Amino acid sequence: MDLPVFDGHNDAITRDDWEGIVTGRGGHWDLPRMRQGNVHAGIFAVFSPSEGLSWDRVARDDGATEFSPAAEVRCPDAIAYASAAAGRVLALERAGHLRVARGIADIDAAHANGALPTAVLHIEGAEAIDENLENLDLWYQAGLRSLGPVWSRANVFAHGVPFIFPSSPDIGPGLSDAGFRLVRRCAELGILVDLSHLNEAGFWDVAGMNAGPLVASHSAAHALCPASRNLTDRQLTEIGVSNGLVGIVFATEFLRPDFAEDADTPLQVIVEQIRYVSDLIGVEHVALGSDFDGAMVPEELGDVAGVPKLLAALADSGFSNEEIASIAWHNWRRVLDAWWR
Ligand SMILES: [Zn+2]
To answer: Residues with Cβ < 8 Å from 35, sequence gap 6 or more?
Structure first.
């Protein structure tokens, strides 16, 4: 299938070999492979890593799998890291390699065949934003149009959900006062607020603000994989009620019932997640959020060039062309338009 695709989350710009994004490189994502996969646009994450992130397991006597908590990142460190990474995206735009989407017209232009690859600039974990939000306008002017208040760690705004399996996402407190102000100011400016990595208390705090449609850019259904990072049926239902969406993540551990990070995971588990969410809250509330370059994805899918295989698998499983076009593009277009206007 050669429908245009919008993908909700990649970590391409913070890979060490990011410079190869124009001509081709390792990993999951570069501009030539975007073209091969008909992935016309995507949300490009700027993620400031924690010092000493180890993925060591915490000993637990209940048999659950838990990874060591990620260290908090100081605002000055995150500003240095994130502004450099965002600068790379702007330099790619200046050189004519991609377009940075600043309004919905850019997304609509990206839908056309032959359009320039298009990036929505996103901050994953808002440590680079100061507590008084003084630099948020600067980020907006630079093209920031999407922001996740937290990665899976705490900051001054909220508490990210630690990686635990099996576990409820209901771990830790909700938004701080600064977190409420951040969400409100993002809504005023026209920056989408992304709920992936937020814990459940924070999710309900944002839901209660009616700031915009609820969006989890790269998550999956807790009913199929009971990991702390996934969304319960109650959360999914609220996302549907808000006219939001879930971008289904391709990271194998969040798709499978056993939390295994395993490249041999069949592509079909992504289809099953999409089917589950679609049956529960409607096909207009499910989309794609790969996490390419940020996770292990099914070998059968491979990389961004393999996305048409997923669309074909959706067709084989009974989704109509119109439904697949919604999942692949139009649902993302709707929520971006709602937050950006
Ligand atoms: Zn993530």
So the answer is: 117
What is the phi/psi pair of residue 45, to 5°? -85, 140
295 Cα to the center of ligand 1, angstroms: 9
Specify the pTM.
Answer: 0.98
What distance in angstroms lies between residue 24's CA and the mean position of ligand 1's atoms?
23
DSSP 275: H
Instruction: Please tell me the distance between residue 55's alpha carbon and the centre of ligand 1 in angstroms.
Output: 14
| Backbone phi, psi, residue 10, to 5° | -135, 155
328 close to 5: Cβ distance less than 8 angstroms: yes
Residue 303 CB partners (closer than 8 Å, separation 6+): 27, 28, 29, 33, 37, 292, 297
CB 307 within 8 A of CB 301: yes
pLDDT digits (tens, 9 = 90+) for 142-190: 999 999 999 999 999 999 999 999 999 999 999 999 999 999 999 999 9
Q: How far is the CA of 219 from the centre of ligand 1 (A)?
A: 8
Q: How far is the CA of 292 from the centre of ligand 1 (A)?
A: 10
DSSP 8-class letter at 49: P
- Residue 82 CA to ligand 1 centre (angstroms): 15
Which residue, 305, 310, 328, 285, is CA-closest to 28? Answer: 305
